[in-house]
Amino acid sequence: MDNYLNYRWPKGPGVQPPPVPSDRPLPPPRKAKRSARSWLIPTVAVVLCLALLGGASFWAVNGIANILAQMEPAGPDEDPGGDPRPWPSWEAPRDSDWTPDDLPWGKPDPSVTLSAQPAGPAVTGPEVYEAVWPSLVCVEAAHSSQFRGVSVGTGVVVSAEGYVLTNYHIIDETVSVRVLLLDDPNRYFTAKVIGFDEEFDLAVLKFNPGDVRLTPARLGDSDQLSVGERVYAVGNPMGYLLGSMSTGIVSALGRDEQESGSALGLIQTDAPLNPGNSGGALLNEAGQVVGITSAKITGLSREDGEAVEDAAVIENLGLAIPISDALPFVNHILATGESWRPAMGIQCSAVQVDGRKGIQVGEVTGDAPREAGLKKGDLIVSANGVPVATLVEMRRVLYRTGAGVELSCTVVRGGEEMEISFALTDSLKQD
After folding, report:
1. Which pLDDT score, from 0 to 100, does residue 96 have?
2. Residue positions annotated with a catalytic role
3. Where are the beta strands (DSSP E) in 200-256?
4. What radius of gyration, in Å, describes the C-alpha atoms of the chain?
5. With 50 as the cut, is the pLDDT of residue 81 above it?
6. d(Cα 32, Cα 6) in Å, to the nearest integer?
7. Which helix (H) or strand (E) holds 126?
8. FRET partner for 211 with CA separation of 20 to 30 A, picked from 78, 140, 228, 360?
9. Which domain, by its residues, includes 179?
């Protein structure tokens, strides 16, 4: 790929790239086969190809290595214990037998806990940008395969200690990770992975900022979002347009797994998202992070998973992980280095019985709910005082309750209401 696409220019908002040389035209887009979910494009994607938004993947390994080699090597304060060699280095290329053990793992820190902050007054778009820009980084991940090269996405700094929230698909199958500060792209830091959740596409990174004073992003409450509300997306589209901002509205809330490919109810927005935006910030009008941009819907596929030839390109259907849903997972990862999957121990479905919506128990599979008295046919209408009419709503309550914590359910049986409580389990730790 033309090295022009790999170019990163100096600091500062509003800095424009050099013009494309007229004698070096851009290559035509590749046509790619798509899987059954390939209409979901991670924001960390292959440049000029369909992929997840996570990060722009550079196929020209030598090209990106040459560009990065021209950067000033990190000193002791910038990359403690860093490697002075050009990055990435593939002195010993890996094969396809990659496992998470190959990631650069760091240690969790239970003393770090994230929480939403009260929303302030609405501010202007420029004020939103100025507030969040120092809190974003460019995430670069060297893959275990030379063919995949380097993925480039975005990350949100969530603590002054150097913790970064991003998408898992940016670091998937990588053997080294580093971050670049947007206010100084020539200053980079080796990062380690504290933990991740592949299903929910979340990852927590940690780097040592040294003498750099970081500005953590202000986190908001995504539960307060409304359809039609203005939002802003800031990230690194194409992997080299650092700190780009787009704006739009909240198009929909609670997109479930059939619509988005995620078990979390995602935020849909018409704010333009592109490869490299993955892991970036979706912000409300108060300048708070209310979502982590992760994917976009860009095309169609047949039931057999093959791409529809010449299908119309679908525009402005971006998806973001709600920050209020993400925080329980992130805090658990910060504390333990592991993810979790709180589970009730039942098989269930969303139904409406006698005019009441709720979650109907199909089978009781866990000991805790069985011993508490939950039975097949019971209709759960609320959990921990929160009405639940859909599986997305029920999952949200479970995720925010946590494994090992008691869940209180309001159950309708034979027209009568009763309260049944039992402890949630962690399905990830069950055989």
Report:
1. 62
2. 169, 201, 278
3. 202-207, 230-235, 244-255
4. 22
5. no
6. 21
7. helix 125-132
8. 140
9. 1-338
